[in-house]
Amino acid sequence: MSGTIKFIFAPRNRVVKSEKLVGRIPNLTRRLRGEDDNDFIYAAYVDGSLLDESVNDARTDFSIAEADTELAPGSDHLALDSLCGP
């Protein structure tokens, strides 16, 4: 798990899904290292009413679109990938 960089979706303070951030943020490398040259973990936890209201009963997925491309043109809804950045 050393050097892990993740975006964690945690409605009601419980992890449901996680996404790797490498490739989503420009210039983000696969490993993060401190000044002492040791790897470290970066985890961004996301919660809120949108996730609370859309998590399924089994807490294995959400009832919202995974990607912006799944939304109807002109929709004002958010997709999970839009929460992770570009």
Instruction: Tell me the series of helices and strands, N- to C-terminal.
Output: EEEHH
Termini separation comes to: 24 Å
Number of domains: 1
Number of strands: 3
Inertia-based shape: elongated
List keywords for this structure.
86 residues, alpha+beta, 3-stranded mixed beta sheet, 2 helices, 3 strands, elongated
Quick description:
The chain is an alpha+beta fold and 86 residues long.
List strands and helices in order, with pairings.
Elements: E1 5-9, E2 17-20, E3 42-46, H1 49-54, H2 80-83
Parallel strand pairs: 1-3
Antiparallel strand pairs: 1-2
Explain what this protein looks like in three dimensions.
The radius of gyration is 15 Å and the shape is elongated. It has 86 residues and is α+β, with helices and mostly antiparallel strands. The protein has one domain. Strand 1 (5-9) and strand 2 form a beta hairpin. The protein has helices at 49-54, 80-83, and strands at residues 5-9, 17-20, 42-46. The protein has a three-stranded mixed β-sheet with strand order 2-1-3, with no helix packed on it. Helix content is 12%, strand content 16%. It is built from two helices and three strands, in the order βββαα.
